[in-house]
Amino acid sequence: MNFPNDETGQVLAEMQAEGIDFTIVHKVVFFQLFERKEDAQAMVAHLAEKTPDMAVTIQPDQSPNVWDVDCTVTMLLDYDAIIAQEAEFEQLAAKFKGYNDGWGVEV
C-alpha cells in the first residue's frame, strides 16, 4: 500500500512496515492542546454532549501551562479517514481556543 508523502503518510508507512494490521479497527487517539484548562474543559463538555460514546480524557501536558485533550476514535487506519478526522478536530479545537496536535494509535 502506498501513502502520500506527508507526515500522516509517513507514519502509516512505518506502521505498515512494522506489521500493524490495517484490515482491523484500531483505537486512534487525536491530541488537542489548550493554554487554558477552562477551554480544554469546555471542549470535553461539548464532546460529552455531542459524542457521548467517544473516549475523551484531559490532563496536563508535558509543556508547562498546557492542557491535553485526547479523543479516542475507533476506526480503520485509512489515510483519508485520518486526515478528515484530524481536520474535524482542528476546527472543533479552534472553537475552544485550542489546536490539534496530531494523532497516535493504541497498539
TrEMBL record:
The name under which this protein is listed is Regulator of RNase E activity RraB
Name the source's superkingdom.
Bacteria
The leader peptide range reads none
Pfam families tied to this protein: RraB
The UniProt entry, under Gene3D superfamilies, shows:
RraB-like
InterPro entries of this UniProt entry? RraB-like_sf (IPR036701), RraB_dom (IPR009671)
Domain spans labelled Regulator of ribonuclease activity B? 5-105
